[in-house]
């Protein structure tokens, strides 16, 4: 084997394929790889370019791992919030009322509207059917979400979710309005017909 290589070098290459570079008695021979190896090598380089652009991502192609991860997290979040919302939105009415009552007590509504919603020096009576800002469910939701800061009613859209506010509105309309607390504050606004 060793002999063969030496023979080959001596007989053929030294004359024809000599690059005529010689350093310290070592000659550089022109000994190219076979064409198929070169081609294969070029193909792999080309492939790596395409692969890199596709999977490390040109801006916003959304194929790279980071944006793939981000979009799957976003999708999951959306799914969860939709599930939570539709669950709350499709609760049977008694459950909506119970949930609303709990929020009414826990979130400090009682501070201004009284423990039974009867109203006090600050906030109006929520048990009578007289309304300053409208009696429709959407109007009540609007009042709770946006508040009436200039009149002393806190906005709640930052602290409560849409479905929690809806539960509050259902609780007020279906449970408070029909209740008749003994110490209710005098009606304010217009009667709901
Ligand atoms: C800091 C005191 C305060 C707190 C806390 C408060 N409210 Fe009010 N609320 C008011 C006042 C004052 C008004 C009257 C606003 C007006 O005159 O337009 C009001 C009005 C309302 C109305 C509309 C009444 C109407 O006649 O149109 C609803 C419904 C209501 N509040 C629900 C709630 C709920 C539910 C909570 C708890 C999440 C809450 N409020 C917490 C002070 C408060």
Largest sheet: 2 strands, antiparallel
The side-by-side strand order for the widest beta sheet comes to 1-2
Order of helices and strands: HEEHHHHEHHE
Radius of gyration, taken over Cα atoms and rounded to an integer in Å: 39 Å
Mean pLDDT: 85
Percent of residues in beta strands: 5-15%
Quick one: CATH superfamily of the domain at 87-191? Cytochrome c-like domain
The proportion of residues forming helix, as a percent range, comes to 40-55%
Poorly predicted runs of 5 or more residues: none
Small ligands present: heme C
| CATH topology heading of the domain at 87-191 | Cytochrome Bc1 Complex, Chain D, domain 2
- Total DSSP E strands: 4
CATH class (first level) name of the domain at 87-191 = Mainly Alpha
Distance between the termini: 108 Å
Architecture per CATH nomenclature, i.e. the level-2 architecture of the domain at 87-191: Orthogonal Bundle
**What is the structural class?**
mainly alpha
Outline: rod-shaped
Number of helices: 7
Descriptive overview:
This protein is mainly alpha-helical and 193 residues long. Among the domains are: 2-31, no CATH class; 87-191, Cytochrome Bc1 Complex, Chain D, domain 2. Helices cover 55% and strands 7% of the residues. It has helices at 2-16, 35-56, 65-89, 93-106, 109-113, 137-146, 162-176; strands spanning 18-23, 26-29, 130-131, 190-191. The strands form 2 sheets. A two-stranded antiparallel ribbon has the order 1-2. A two-stranded antiparallel sheet has the order 3-4. A hairpin with a 2-residue loop joins strand 1 and strand 2 (26-29). Helix 6 (137-146) crosses helix 7 (162-176). The longest helix has 25 residues, at 65-89. The radius of gyration is 39 Å and the shape is rod-shaped. The mean pLDDT is 85. Bound molecules: heme C (HEC). Heme C binds at residues 104, 107-109, 111-113, 122-124, 126, 131-133, 140, 143-144, 148, 151-154, 156, 168, 172, 189.
